[in-house]
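Shift notes (night). Ran Phospho-N-acetylmuramoyl-pentapeptide-transferase while the centrifuge was going.
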Amino acid sequence: MLITAFLAALVALVLTMIGIPRFIMFFHKKKLGGQPTLEEVKQHASKAGTPTMGGLVFVVSALLVSAVFALIFGQFTPMFITAWWVLAMYALIGFLDDFMKVFSQKNHGGLKASHKLMAQIATGIVSYLILMQVDSTNVLNILGWKIDLSWFFVIFIIFWLVGWSNAVNLTDGIDGLASITVAISLSAYAVIAVAQGRYDVLLILLSVIGGLLAFFVFNHKPAKIFMGDVGSLALGGFIAMISILLHAEWSLLLIGFIYILETVSVMMQVSYFKLTHGKRIFRMTPIHHHFELGGFSGKRKGWSEWKIDIVFWTVTAVLSLLALLIYFNI
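Came back to this:
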């Protein structure tokens, strides 16, 4: 099954490589508006008009490939279905949000926040119901300590999915950052899946990684396409559910440290701004924009997007290795 999972990754990679250029051509041919750029970050001016919603291609590729392989090789289990469901539904939520921003003549703001939240919560509830077909113990594993949350486990699942989906969404702010950061995070969970013999989970994990690697070819600086909410929301919800399926929820606090950093920076900025009536902690948030505008201190020469990418990828890789070391020694 290990070879089969890698083959699925290769097929997803090839499909995404074929699909993305055609998706870009479609955007240009229809003269559709791209993802809005940030006026505060002058170096982003050149990104105006860049096609978005590229996540649709790699997500659909991963969903199709993993489903076909799962059916052929007998891996269409409740665990697989749960991961597949979360990836598909969070992608749908993101797609509707992107679609309204790009195609709607009346609503360029996308889905209402309340509607988006309700859809995310509904996805979490259905995920819980599917999981109950596999394991009805409602146990949360924290560094080897098992805590029975009873029915509160559904609350945890909702919180986990919504929180991480929005955190990855915030991370998707510069060329190539989210695609490789998430690919590294998922690679760590692929190692855990192999160790547990969860080839059903590994199958969809590697399919997503294959799609992400292909997408990065077109998403690295200078990006020819952005993933949009259809990609970032799907990836965030997916990685959260993977950590639950592998009973390694705690590990995401290390593996997903960058997503936490991005989210916390926004929360700190907004809170401080309100408390001080206009003052700021960072030049701009999420924090990768702070580094863009003024380096680490915020007062020096800004970092290039490549430098931010490499630093964030390295941090994710190091902390992912640390999480794996802890996992295999507890």
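The radius of gyration is 19 Å. The chain has a mean pLDDT of 90.
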